[in-house]
Amino acid sequence: MTFSIHRFFFIVYNTKPFFKSKKWVIICITSQWTSVVLLSLPILFYKVSICSDPAASRIYTCILVVLIPSLVTILLNAFIFHHIRSSSRRIQPQAIDTLTNNNANQQMKFSSREVALLKQMIFVFAVFIGGWGPIYFVRIINQYVDVHTVIYACSVLLCETALLSVVVHLFIHNHDLRHYLSNKIQHGWRVEHTRLEREAWVR
Predict the structure, then answer these.
(1) Burial of 109 (0-12, 13-18, 19+ CB in 10 A)
(2) pLDDT for 50
């Protein structure tokens, strides 16, 4: 959810330097952890007689971890998509005096970008719900019906796979991140290569 909030302000308010600064990233991360700690406090006040979570606690956790982040992500992605679409429509009139074919190609390009953005949003949302939802739903169901350990293990595996998928998807589609990591790796390789050459020269 923190990534969605950061991306929303980064895209919608891209003219404001503050939302591109490290300070904004730190604020987003700090706010998330502070919210997590505060929202987790009610769980500590549940009275239990055995070493297990009560049903209310499991439902509360499911709402905090799955339902609320999903709702916030849907709303933010909808605003981002609307902003991108509106920006594209504002740019298109500037090319009215160009040839008809060029104008059609330009419109197709914008449509392709919008479709690609929508696909990415749907993918991330589907992976989040499909990966993190089952494990919490199984915990709630297990409160009333015995769930086989294989089903529980599969839900845990889905959760881990979803996390890996989101990380890989972020790396593949985030050009700035790939460029940053590539520069860091190349810089480290050049520094190490220079150091080895100096050591060989001294010998």
Answers:
(1) exposed
(2) 58
Q: Quickly list DSSP for the chain.
A: -HHHHHHHHHHHTTT-GGGGSHHHHHHHHHHHHHHHHHHHHHHHT---SSSS--HHHHHHHHIIIIIHHHHHHHHHHHHHHHHHHHHHHHHGGGGTTS-HHHHHHHHHHHHHHHHHHHHHHHHHHHHHHHHHHHHHHHHHHTTTSPPPHHHHHHHHHHHHHHHHHHHHHHHHH-HHHHHHHHHHHHHHHHHHHHHHHHHHHH-
User: CB neighbours of 171 closer than 8 A, spacing ≥ 6?
Assistant: 177, 178
Question: What are the residue ranges spanned by the domains of the chain?
Answer: 46-202
| CA of residue 129 relative to chain centroid, distance | 12
pTM of the model: 0.66
Q: Render pLDDT for 139-192 as a digit per residue (tens, 0 to 9).
A: 888 888 888 889 988 998 988 888 888 778 777 776 666 676 777 787 777 776
Residues 128 and 70 sit within 8 Å (Cβ to Cβ): yes
